[in-house]
Design brief:
Elements: H1 2-17, H2 30-56, H3 67-73, H4 75-78, H5 82-118, H6 124-154, H7 158-179
């Protein structure tokens, strides 16, 4: 019985590794592949949820729309080239990384403010400095989002920008009809 078990394990490992000439290829480590797969799944889920939120949610301000994700989601309708799509993905990824950092800094600053306010004798000078820091971080995040969107729009041709505006207008009309807004 153990002999068959050992042979089946050996056969399975040989089947998984493939022929010996495949060893010449350089492949990423398994943990790197898994990390990349999770990142891809996370991005797809965010895009999918963004689409639902975009379609069914209350209207968001112009600067808060996930415009680059919308462009990528509708790449065929917009007629994006591979290069345009790659540039937009890079912009989106860079913004996501930057926003994660800024949001973490913002959470830390909020925690610092909470600690300052919990002190028996509140130091108003430090509180004021921390509130100004928090507002600066919020402003930096909003500006980063707007910059990313504007850089994304720069990647489109005039015709593609027009198609995008029409799509966004159609979505607004559908959403306002759905919510009974006039």
């Amino acid at each position: 019985m153990a002999k068959w078990y050992f042979l089946s394990l050996l056969a399975a490992s040989l089947a998984l590794t493939g022929p010996s000439h495949a060893v010449d290829k350089i492949t990423p480590a398994v943990h790197e592949e898994i990390a990349q797969a999770w990142e891809d799944v996370g991005r797809q889920v965010r895009d999918w949820l963004g689409g639902w939120r975009e379609h069914f949610a209350f209207p968001v301000s112009r600067e808060e729309r996930p415009l680059i994700s919308t462009m990528l989601r509708h790449r065929e309708k917009l007629g994006l080239s591979e290069n345009q799509a790659r540039q937009l993905e890079q912009l989106r990824d860079n913004f996501q990384k930057e926003s994660i950092r800024k949001e973490a800094d913002l959470r830390v600053a909020e925690m610092d403010l909470k600690a300052l306010l919990e002190a028996e004798a509140v130091d108003m000078t430090k509180v004021e400095e921390k509130i100004r820091e928090i507002e600066r971080l919020k402003g930096d995040l909003r500006l980063a989002r707007i910059r990313a969107i504007e850089k994304g729009k720069e990647q489109l041709t005039a015709e593609q920008r027009k198609k995008l505006q029409e799509m966004l207008s159609d979505q607004r009309m559908t959403r306002s009809h759905f919510w009974g807004e006039r």
